[in-house]
Design a protein that fits this description.
Blueprint (H helix, E strand, L loop, with lengths): L3 E3 L3 H13 L4 E6 L6 H5 L2 E6 L10 H11 L3 E3 L9 H9 L3 E2 L4 H8 L1 H10 L15 H8 L6 E5 L9 E3 L5 H16 L4 E5 L5 E9 L5 E13 L2 E7 L6 H17 L4 E9 L6 E7 L6 H8 L3 H9 L16 E8 L1 E2 L5 E2 L2 E2 L2 E3 L6 E5 L6 E2 L6 E9 L2 H13 L2 E3 L5 H9 L1 H4 L7 H5 L17 H12 L17 H6 L8
Parallel strand pairs: 1-2, 1-4, 2-3, 4-5
Antiparallel strand pairs: 6-7, 6-8, 9-10, 9-12, 10-11, 11-14, 12-13, 14-21, 15-16, 17-20, 18-22, 19-21
Helix pairs in contact: 4-5, 12-13
The structure holds ligand MV4.
Length: about 500
């Protein structure tokens, strides 16, 4: 592999550039007109503009991306996550153009992308799936007959959906037929595929997923689980590994099941098998497989020491996995918080504008995968993720306390963001107790307001806070509080005490 084109943007493009640099492979960035000054463009060896800000005309524009690979002489494409990462047609087109697609075979993307087909394939491979019915576009009579044997509540899901898209709950069998019809109509309009299927509802489950790596020579391993149950509207906020509810025996069983699921579709490269976990029975069920590198991959890297992005590249160029299952161990605990440009005080409204001042945390066991810098302009064209803050420690409590400290030291001025919300989430008794089921946010975090987390006068505009923060960073002002005590000021407290006309 001589040169890799990264068909993505933001923090994941930056993450992939790091892997390329460490492997001594030049990296080509692509960017939309809105991303001319983005961090991934600054860090890449070369960059190519692929179109206007609209994703359809840039990061989803296959012709422009493949064209950029040709003009720069790239011989491989890393798709990252989102955009074209799970588009089988794109993977095929790359291969047809003689480019290495750094991901699974197109057939595996296609088979796992169709939820009804993947459910059938998993059942045939003896992978546990949630009790339910096979999919249908028209024959609701048959579905009704089968579904009436399952105790409600039921979920009607769209075969082409996934990630919570096109999901409907049915409380009574009497409502099933009308819900099948409307869900099918909606799925047809949204995905061009009206196939829907029915599953029994697992009440307040956990989302537990298993990372797998399979090479082109038949070797495959799992890298243990990640628990990602803390989500709002199917957007993950906090992920961790290990999960507090997974015993060593369950971990082994889930891991082996995940590798078997991947093998059932001829999988190669890095992938993630998602399971629903039922706390009461400790049963787990296959949900879907994500055929890409995932946002939350760093917690696995922190606890196993395996660089997943480098292994994606090595596997794609035909290298054999250099280790076996028995060589892999999880050490310690890792937590990831996603830092979004969203305002948690107003129902997570996206926030855009210039980052006037940025102070990112660091320290032993702190990793910050970031796509931003001071002066960076956040737009609303793309996913609002700014960065991912990841901590590692020997224990869950150690990783939690590190995360709280790191979040308190994360200062992003100029745009709204969720650092203080996450800090309170991590400090919640329910999080400490590991009650991190999918109901966590509606149950414990719906009343949140940032009032308690703006020490001093929170009416000060960010521009004023920036001036104060700059003076602080220049060493011209010092707030009270001794080093090493809990009274030591966080940057928020320091700038909160700053006053116009005050003692600078
Ligand atoms: C379920 C479920 C309960 N029972 N399926 C949501 C996202 C999509 N990947 C599947 N989802 C769910 N499917 C059955 N049969 C509960 C959810 C679910 C959920 C899953 C993982 C993480 C957060 C969630 C929040 C609400 C519902």
């Amino acid at each position: 592999m001589k040169k890799i084109l990264i068909a993505n943007r933001g923090e994941i493009a930056v993450r992939i550039i790091h892997a390329c640099r460490e492997m001594n492979i030049p990296a080509v960035a692509v960017f939309s007109e809105a991303d001319r000054t983005a961090l991934h463009v600054q860090l890449a060896d070369e960059s190519v503009c692929i179109g206007p800000p609209s994703p359809l005309e840039s990061y989803l524009n296959m012709d422009a991306i493949i064209g950029a690979a040709k003009t720069t002489g790239a011989d491989a494409v890393h798709p990252g996550y989102g955009f074209l990462a799970e588009n089988a047609v794109f993977a095929e087109r790359c291969i047809d153009e003689g480019l290495v697609f750094i991901g699974p075979p197109p057939s595996a993307i296609r088979e796992m992308g169709d939820k009804v087909q993947s459910r059938r394939l998993m059942e045939a491979a003896d992978i546990p799936v949630v009790p339910g019915t096979a999919g249908t576009a028209k024959d609701f009579g048959n579905v009704l007959k089968k579904a009436s044997k399952i105790k409600p509540p039921l979920f009607v899901k769209a075969s082409a959906g996934g990630g919570g898209k096109g999901m409907r709950i049915v409380e009574s069998i009497d409502d099933l037929e009308s819900t099948l019809e409307s869900a099918s109509r909606e799925a047809e309009a949204a995905f061009g595929d009206g196939t829907v299927y029915v599953e029994k509802v697992v009440e307040n489950p956990r989302h537990i997923e298993v990372q797998v790596l399979l090479d082109q020579h038949g070797a495959g391993v799992h890298l243990f689980e990640r628990e990602c149950s803390i989500q709002r509207r199917h957007q993950k906020l906090v992920e961790e590994t290990p999960s507090v509810v997974i015993t060593p025996a369950l971990r082994k069983k889930m891991g082996e099941t995940a590798v078997a699921a991947a093998r059932a579709v001829g999988y190669q490269n890095a992938g993630t098998v998602e399971f629903l976990f039922d706390d009461k029975s400790t049963d787990f069920y296959f949900l879907e497989m994500n055929t890409r590198i995932q946002v939350e991959h760093p917690v696995t890297e922190m606890t196993t020491g395996v660089d997943l992005v480098k292994w994606q590249i090595r596997i794609a160029r035909g290298e054999a996995l250099g280790f076996k299952q028995k060589d892999l161990r999880q050490r310690g605990h890792s937590i990831e918080c996603r830092i979004y440009a969203e305002d948690p005080a107003t129902g997570f409204m996206p926030s855009s504008g210039k980052i006037l001042y940025l102070q990112e945390p660091s320290g032993p066991g702190v990793r910050n995968d970031s796509g931003i810098y001071s002066g960076y302009e956040v737009t609303t064209h793309y996913d609002p993720i700014l960065s991912k803050l990841v901590t590692w420690d020997e224990t869950r409590e150690g990783a939690r306390l590190k995360m709280i400290t790191a979040l308190e030291n994360y200062v992003i001025l100029g745009i709204k963001n969720c650092t203080l919300y996450l800090r309170d989430l991590l400090a919640h008794d329910a999080f400490i107790e590991g009650k991190t089921n999918t109901d966590f946010i509606p149950k414990y975090m719906s009343e949140w307001s940032d009032a308690a987390w703006r020490p001093g006068d929170d009416a000060l505009p960010d521009e004023v806070l920036v001036a104060a923060a700059l003076m602080e960073s220049l060493g011209k002002t010092r707030a009270a509080g001794g080093a090493g005590t809990r009274e030591a000021p966080t940057p928020w407290q320091t700038i909160g005490r700053w006053e116009i006309g005050g003692g600078v």
